[in-house]
Amino acid sequence: MAIKTFIVDDHYMVIEGIRSLLQNEKDIEWLGHAMNAASCLAFLHNQVPDVLLMDINLPGKSGIDLCREVREKYPSVFVIGLSTFNQQSFIEKMMEHGASGYVLKNATQAELMEAVRTVARGKSYFSHEAVLSLKKNAGPGIPVLTRREKEVLGLIGDGYTNNEIASKLFISVATVDTHRKNLLTKFDARNIASLIKAAMQKQLL
């Protein structure tokens, strides 16, 4: 199955550039583009892509706010933040609002392909520059969590099971399990007990 891909960006040259990089890939289906948040939401009302490449600086509503709205209304859509900015605050805000990846607009074709394919598998992808920015500015050993991961972590800390968390957050048990595994990896924890202990030590619970 081809990965259905859509882009939101207010610069036509950026749209055309990315389309030219993606359109000849056999496993990627280009669905089109929008140049602002309203057009994007109108498109999603009729057709839902697998991966949404989203500029952070959009006219009207920012990509950060749009990312949150898209993830709330269409949880099956994976969002990759696109930006010329490599600032920690932008990257963290996109992650907190549910983005699965962050790529700079100077990305190579190979990097863009890898980003789309990685997030389509339900994993996270961040460009090398984005990772360096997060590491350079991060607090001592404090992992960067998405908004949903923070919610799952809080419920794990309260003793809820996967089924109960899924019911509370209106997501599938499989999705909860994925978040749980990601949290274990991010905290370098072997089990839930050590996860909770690590989160409390870092004052995240």
Question: So what's the overall shape?
Answer: globular
CA distance, first residue to last residue: 40 Å
Number of strands: 6
Strand order of the largest sheet: 2-1-3-4-5-6
- List the helices and strands in order: EHEHEHEHEHEHHHHH
Which structural category fits the helices and strands? alpha/beta
- Report the C-alpha radius of gyration, rounded: 17 Å
Describe this structure in words.
This protein is an alpha/beta fold and 205 residues long. A six-stranded parallel sheet has the order 2-1-3-4-5-6, with helices on both faces. Helix 3 packs parallel to helix 4 and helix 7 packs across helix 9. It is globular and about 50 Å long. The model has no long low-confidence stretch (mean pLDDT 88).
In a few lines, what is going on in this structure?
With 205 residues, the protein is α/β, with parallel strands linked by helices.
Set down the secondary structure blueprint.
Elements: E1 3-8, H1 12-22, E2 28-34, H2 37-46, E3 51-55, H3 63-73, E4 78-83, H4 88-96, E5 101-104, H5 109-120, E6 125-126, H6 128-137, H7 147-157, H8 162-169, H9 173-186, H10 192-201
Parallel strand pairs: 1-2, 1-3, 3-4, 4-5, 5-6
Helix pairs in contact: 3-4, 7-9, 8-9
Note the main attributes of this structure:
205 residues, alpha/beta, 6-stranded parallel beta sheet, globular
